[in-house]
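ARCHIVE RECORD
Type: protein–small molecule complex
Small molecule: norvaline
Source of inputs: curated submission
Record status: active
Notes field left blank by submitter.
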Amino acid sequence: MKKDLLTIRDLEREEILSLVDRALEIKKTGRGRPQALMGRTLGLIFEKASTRTRVSFEAAMARLGGHTLFLSTKDTQMSRDEPVKDTARVLSRYLDALVIRTYAQELVEEMARWARIPVINALTDLYHPCQVLSDLVTVKEKKGRIEGLKVAWVGDGNNVAHSWINAAAKLGFQLVLACPRGYEPDPSVLEGTGSNVRVVADPSAAVRDAHVVNTDVWASMGQEAEREERLAAFAGYQVNDDLLRHGRSDIIVMHCLPAHRGEEISEEVLEGKASVVFDQAENKLHLHEALLERLIPAL
Ligand code: CP
Ligand code: NVA
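STRUCTURE (tokenized, with ligand):
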């Protein structure tokens, strides 16, 4: 049966850990299974901007010997209201897997329901599962383990934060999110999580003794109109040298990028010795290679 990746909840703990290890192995050896996806085509439907996710999926597919087809939503009949269920069934006849970046999680779910091919969520307003899977690769690479770590999230309780919550629920590491009032994670995402996942208001409490601190933009794609009010609400939630003093001396700083220097993160921290953001960006490539190997059957 085909397997989709719509949220990290779709994966078992062992599947997550083995994807992380496979990505690290690919990174070490420089390549996935040679020509594993020769003759296969991956479609990419993007309704929002992307640098890293699009390019790393395209490069990963090329490294595995396959092809990609980039589809901006506005150039397809989806922009003229062709139903998702029709698009899904038609594209399933041409393609071997589909990556989608869009607004509503429901759209990705509907696509997956009707498609006969694997559907991969490349970011919605609710989740960014591929990002957090590759971030786990970075954590394992830098810290040698995931279990037993304390991970802090400082800022918006957004799509990336939601996927971190899913990951902590599956893997059991400690995750403390510091979010301003009104910008906490969606209660439905927190539902059923254990005591290893906590939401607090104070960023220094989240970072205290943390091995990893994560942040992301204060206004995500689609929230541009809220920018001014968000800038005010998030004052005091910047990841900067003062905040890092509360963490462990070997704390690493992560950001999925793109970053707004001087807002959610200071220039000094982003460019400083604790920052792993460019290795983090690179690891998207290796994780996507591992994921495509796993989800697309070879010919
Ligand atoms: N981190 C991330 O998803 O970046 P892009 O928006 O550039 O794909
Ligand atoms: N939260 C950000 C992540 C970008 C990769 C957004 O949705 O715009």
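CURATOR ANNOTATION: The first strand starts at residue 41 and ends at 46.
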